[in-house]
Amino acid sequence: MFKIAKNLVKTFEQTLSLSDQDRLDGFFQSIPPNLLESQIHSNTDMSTLSDVLSGLRVVYVDELQLQLESYFDFIVGIDDDPLPLMNNQHGYLYPDYNEIIRLLNIHAEQASPVKLNVWSAKGGTFRDEYMSLSAIPSDENQMEDINLSNDTPHHQLSSKIFSPLGFKVQWTPLIAATYTYHVLQLNIEGGPAHAAGLIPDEDYIIGSQDGLLATGGETLLQDLIRSRANHDLILYVYNKVVDCVRPVTVNIGPDGRLGCGVGYGFLHRIPTVRKQEDGNTSMHSNKGITNAPTAAIPVPTFDQPMSSETFVPGIAKPPPTSKSSKKHAVNISTMGDYFSEGKDQSPTPKPSTGDKDASIPPPPSKNTEETQ
């Protein structure tokens, strides 16, 4: 009896226990569990699982490399396998860059594309990117071309034979992608936010100069603004309508206020970028779907905050011609026909060719007139 009760309690505990995927923040559940397996098993604290998961964050992209997007993209796997990790001197997991280089060298030797498993901070979406690698001549094998990390010295890396990748990465916790501050409304007319051109509902503050917002926190932006009173502050702002990031210089006044309300947390993370059928990138917002350009364009400063009631006049067109004016319009080339209207249009009989005076009637005789 005791054994049956013990098995029943064990079964009940297994039913109530959460899986590793359920322990994750919903923002990261699009990542396949096998890519995070090594990091999940190394974490013994269930409450901080989402805080310790990390990936290779793309921090720089060459202008010719369009497959990845800096700041938002995290490489979490290679060829559907987890990133090779190792423990650093402090006991924390860290990428094994030598193993990563070895994997890329294999693809370069075989002239086969490498499959990068990428997680995006825009909506927490997951995708695969295929990148072609080509081998470079041995005399051009320069270690300074390696752009895998800003933290690992080049002399500690294995030699590589693949051509430059065109991007740089940095080992970063995935939770850092959620450190965003959503601009909700402008509170002060002519205030710093209004003068800098921040757009309510569309803009997200994702960073600042010198990385002062890198650690996140609900009150961090407020504390930063107060500390920069009477100074200029450069904020990096993402706009969900045009899908680009722009630097904004804000002149903080003596009161240490930004002049706008912001939201922070799960409901104020960057939304998903949707793809239309024609391949154009678009964003959905409260104002409808707006096509976004493929290249990032600067957003101009507005005297008034942009809203759905803003009217942009187009090119003025002449008023349409009324029906009455069209009815009485007369063509000059047909003026003769206009005056000939109603006349007999039958042809005049032609005179006989033998009688030259047949067309001229004879005058009445004088005797006849006198007789009458």
TrEMBL record:
<keyword id="KW-0333">Golgi apparatus</keyword>
<protein>
    <recommendedName>
        <fullName>PDZ GRASP-type domain-containing protein</fullName>
    </recommendedName>
</protein>
<dbReference type="InterPro" id="IPR036034">
    <property type="entry name" value="PDZ_sf"/>
</dbReference>
<dbReference type="GO" id="GO:0000139">
    <property type="term" value="C:Golgi membrane"/>
</dbReference>
<dbReference type="Pfam" id="PF04495">
    <property type="entry name" value="GRASP55_65"/>
</dbReference>
<dbReference type="GO" id="GO:0007030">
    <property type="term" value="P:Golgi organization"/>
</dbReference>
<keyword id="KW-0472">Membrane</keyword>
<dbReference type="GO" id="GO:0106103">
    <property type="term" value="C:COPII vesicles tethering complex"/>
</dbReference>
<dbReference type="GO" id="GO:0044877">
    <property type="term" value="F:protein-containing complex binding"/>
</dbReference>
<dbReference type="GO" id="GO:0009306">
    <property type="term" value="P:protein secretion"/>
</dbReference>
<feature type="domain" description="PDZ GRASP-type">
    <location>
        <begin position="54"/>
        <end position="174"/>
    </location>
</feature>
<keyword id="KW-0677">Repeat</keyword>
<feature type="domain" description="PDZ GRASP-type">
    <location>
        <begin position="179"/>
        <end position="267"/>
    </location>
</feature>
<dbReference type="InterPro" id="IPR024958">
    <property type="entry name" value="GRASP_PDZ"/>
</dbReference>
<dbReference type="InterPro" id="IPR007583">
    <property type="entry name" value="GRASP55_65"/>
</dbReference>
<feature type="region of interest" description="Disordered">
    <location>
        <begin position="306"/>
        <end position="372"/>
    </location>
</feature>
<dbReference type="GO" id="GO:0006888">
    <property type="term" value="P:endoplasmic reticulum to Golgi vesicle-mediated transport"/>
</dbReference>
<dbReference type="GO" id="GO:0009267">
    <property type="term" value="P:cellular response to starvation"/>
</dbReference>
